[in-house]
Amino acid sequence: MLSSEKDNNFCFPIPDVLENDKVKLVPFIPSKHAKALVKGFDENTWNYLSYGPFTSVEQFVEDFWEKGIRANPATTSFTIMDKAGPLEANGEPAIAGIVSYINSSDRDACTEIGFVVILPQFQRTHVTSNMVGLLMHYALDLPEQGGLGLRRLQWVCNAKNAPSLKVAERMGFRFEGVLRWSRVLPPSKSIGYKAAPERKGDPRAGKGGRDSAYSSCCWDDWEGGVRDWVDKVMRRTK
């Protein structure tokens, strides 16, 4: 049976909902959200991600959620819902994807938007920009504004993932550079895969890797105009 409990292990307070008139983010709960998500995944979902694919709802919940998210106080996940479309039979907006805060640190006042999966029918719509904007507001707004008041929010993706890089740029993140050979990947990750040189004695021979592109939005960027820019992007995105 899938768990009906939300994450209670994150290092920051988890809001019950983050929303505007177009998108709603709620804490991921396996019993409510996992089946619709897994049903919506396709063969391209995992191209640039370091995890997946998953062959069943149970595998997704166990390997991604229980081991990868819930057990780690630096991570938590939100289900993305599309408020601009028709409601589902249960009266809720349609599930459009999943996103996480990862690599979070209360001590260092930072977090990262990661593990982003937008289901195919919601890609290149208002969903991504509004989802990212809501997470930027919660991370970087001051507590008196309803946020966490963090100093750094980062966006890290496969350096070959042009759509992800474009999202970061559109939402006001500042490109910082590329960390080469940052991760080891299995050969099954053929897209975004960097072939490994067969160095004699390499303990991971036969496995390639990836270069990771780093972008960030820090508190001074946010206060210096990015906050207003993000609000403008969210208002104009259809």
From TrEMBL:
InterPro entries: Acyl_CoA_acyltransferase, GNAT_dom, Ribosomal_N-acetyltransferase. Residues 23-192 form the N-acetyltransferase domain. Pfam families: Acetyltransf_3. Residues 196-210 have a biased composition (Basic and acidic residues). One of its GO terms (molecular function) is protein-N-terminal-alanine acetyltransferase activity. It comes from Lentinula guzmanii. This is Acyl-CoA N-acyltransferase. Residues 192-213 are annotated as: Disordered.
